[in-house]
Amino acid sequence: MTPWRRPFPPQPLVGRSGAWAALLALACGLGLNGSAQTQRQPHIAYLYPAGGQQGSSFKVKLAGQRLDGVTNVYVTGDGVTASVLEHIKPLNGRQIALARDRMQNIQRALKTTPRAEPTISFRNELDTNRVETLSRAAAQKELEEIRLRLLNPKNRSRENPQLAEDVTLQVQIASNAPPGQRELRLATAAGLSNPLCFRIESLPEFAEQEPNEHRAQASTIAKLPAILNGQIMPGDVDVFRLRIAQPMRLVVVVRARELIPYLADAVPGWFQATVALYDAQGKELAYADDYRFNPDPVLFYEIPYAGDYFLEIKDALYRGREDFVYRVTVGELPFITSLFPVAGQVGQRVSVELTGWNLPVERLELDLSQQAPGLLPVTVRNDALVSNPMPFWVETLPSCIEQEPNNTRSSAQAVKPPILISGRINQPGDCDLFQFEGRAGDTLVAEVRARRLNSPLDSILRLTDAAGNLVASNDDHEDKAAGLTTHHADSFLSVRLPADGTYLLHLADAQGQGGPAYTYCLRISPPRPDFELRVVPASVNARAGASATLTVYALRKDGFTNQINLVLKDAPRGFRLSTDRIPAGQNEAKLALLVPMLPLFHPATLRLEGHAIIDGQEIVRPAVPAEDMMQAFAYHHLVPAQELQVAVLPRPRLALQGKGPGLTLPKKARPKG
Questions:
Q1: Contacts of 52 (CB under 8 A, 6+ apart)
Q2: Are 532 and 560 in contact (CB under 8 A)?
Q3: pTM of this prediction?
Q4: Fewer beta carbons within 10 Å, N or C terminal of the chain?
């Protein structure tokens, strides 16, 4: 891969003409001086396609802004390499005028120069005292490039500046590249871009071919399973013909919001995909516009007989744009819809019941003997196909399973805190009651995990005394660590008990719904102070010897207020923090990341930790890299990223002659000699 270079050259508009590079510098006023801190970060808005198959090589197009000098592509993980083929910026008025002048000069020279002459000469459009000479072939090629640039619709439209610049990549995925989600960043003259989701898959991939709005135009997918890629433009509908050879339990999984979680300038703030399945006669067989609370739909349908079926994807509001990108996995896929129990204790073995489509087993044994507390993704493999992951919650607390009947005060299940309970709201209107003894002045915490475990349950919690008097209640409680969640439906109570005696916790669905999939994990315990950390942004740029600003957010839990000490873990030499703590009681800290005195050839991956004293013991928590993403013009979310990457760039050149990029010294300050 090409290292960071000094100085970073501007990208020419077309070809390799030095005149074009000069035109760009003159007409754009493109200078690369100044510190990386004061420049706005390069930004990419989408990738298309947003992934590919193992062992393949293909082109990826993307759009963004502030991408001058783009040279490198960085993809997390192993087995993926990429190079930049082209970078196109929209032309401003001055550039358009100069491009037309140059085109006319070349055309005039071609017309007036005898055909027998192998070269043509013409006056340079920037410097009329300079004569340029080109071969006829080079002149014709440049004319075609100029025409294409002048026809770029983005020259005229400034409606979506975040999509103004186009880049084309060549991506190679090794046959042994581990499948799963990666992050892709661009390296530019100003540093690293934001990360975007890029997926590695084992299945064959197909791209939509426009026009494909009607069944007669649909591309045929002759063999399943497969992955379908496309973009939805305004009013667009994409149709694919699925040639199905035998009856099957068809599963269609759409990835759209997963690829680009939030759009800052759109309501509701993401591409709201819908998917429908039709038979050969045009009858709608199945439709989905979401999957429970997830905006990305999942469609299930039992195919009764072989034949042609048609899959249609569009935006629910018929909106569209370049960044309305989708990936649809279709076939007889294993898909877990629920598991039970949903939680277990560290060190135990848990037998989990699985429900779903095309699953090879109905029960799975989980060994938690070496498992750390937190989320454990559960998957199953059906031949070469791996299911969707379902989260299972692991805790150090004793665990038990809800016992029915327990929906009245007289039948309430007796429990002894601290306890972790796996339960279900089995049918609409069901309510689970848990009874325990409490002492006056003790603080009790009751926390539901359901939405955060992919359950459709919208919980509501009520705490009453033995006489039925309401002590406290809660419906929704925001968890800032759940950056992809917009409806924080999990309930949370922290209550100082008013008297000694018997208390009851009532847990139900706030909308009166229920069913086997309406699972939950309920923690009943004294407060367990703890914290999580998020560090923003996930891509950091700084000039050598300077610094960049980071924001570290402390997501405090159960009343934790202590100071958190920040530590760079195993950082390369030269990196250090200007501030090493988040003060007691504060929820964030802005700090300077000081970087080495010399530029780095490639970005450095850093790890940040938080250390705090809780109940006399030191607790260490990782700072998860995140992007602060805006939704629908107003809302902000901390969306986790895989890595914290830092680009250390060369310092700007010092220009002593008053021309070119860099700092111009006043005459009296210029060195003598």
A1: 58, 171, 173, 199, 200, 201, 205
A2: no
A3: 0.89
A4: C
Average pLDDT over residues 39-48: 92
**Are residues 512 and 425 in contact, defined by beta-carbon separation less than 8 angstroms?**
no
pLDDT score for 127: 78
CATH fold for domain 531-649: Immunoglobulin-like (2.60.40)
Which residues lie below 8 Å from residue 657, measured CB to CB, with a gap of 6+? none
Give residue 28's region: left, alpha or beta (phi > 0; psi -120 to 50). Answer: alpha
**Which range is least confidently modeled, 13-17, 416-420, 480-484, 551-555?**
13-17
Average pLDDT over residues 1-21: 40
pLDDT, tens only, 418-458: 999 999 999 999 999 999 999 999 999 999 999 999 999 99
Exposed / middle / buried, residue 329 (Cβ in 10 Å: 0-12, 13-18, 19+): buried
The token duo for 88 is 């196109």
The residue-averaged pLDDT of 39-58 equals 95
Q: pLDDT value at position 652?
A: 82
- Mean pLDDT, rounded, of the chain: 91
Neighbour order of strands in the sheet with 219-221 = 219-221, 237-244, 307-315, 273-278, 284-288
Residue 88's identity, in one-letter code, is: I
**3-class secondary structure per residue, 334-362:** CEEEEEECCEEECCCEEEEEEEEECCCCC
Tell me how many degrees the CA angle 427-429-434 measures, rounded to the nearest 5: 90
Q: Residue 654's pLDDT is what?
A: 57
Bridge-based pairing state of the strands 219-221 and 284-288: unpaired
Residues 6+ apart with CB under 8 A from 463: 444, 446, 470, 471, 472, 473, 493, 495, 503, 504, 505, 506
Chosen CATH of 407-526 out of 2.60.120.380, 3.30.70.270, 2.40.10.10, 3.40.50.2000: 2.60.120.380
Whether 203-333 shares its CATH topology with 407-526 is answered yes
Residue 17 has pLDDT above 60, yes or no: no
Q: Is 558 left (phi over 0), alpha (psi -120 to 50) or beta?
A: left
In the chain the first and final C-alpha atoms are separated, in Å, by: 40
Q: What is the architecture of the domain spanning 203-333?
A: Sandwich (2.60)
Residues contacting 317, CB < 8 A, separation 6+: 272
Per residue in 587-613, pLDDT (tens digit) is 999 999 999 999 999 999 999 999 999
CB burial readout 229-266, b (16+ within 10 A) else e:
bbbbeeebbbbbbbebeeebebbbbbbbbbbbbbbeeb
Name the pLDDT band for 663 (thresholds 50, 70, 90): very low
Residues contacting residue 343 through CB under 8 Å, at least 6 positions apart? 392, 393, 394, 395, 399, 420, 422, 449, 521
Give the H or E element holding residue 107: helix 93-112
Q: Rounded distance, CA 472 to CA 623, Å?
A: 33
- 274 touches 236 (CB < 8 A): no
Sequence ranges of the domains in the chain: 18-191, 203-333, 336-395, 407-526, 531-649
DSSP H or E stretch at residue 201: strand 196-201
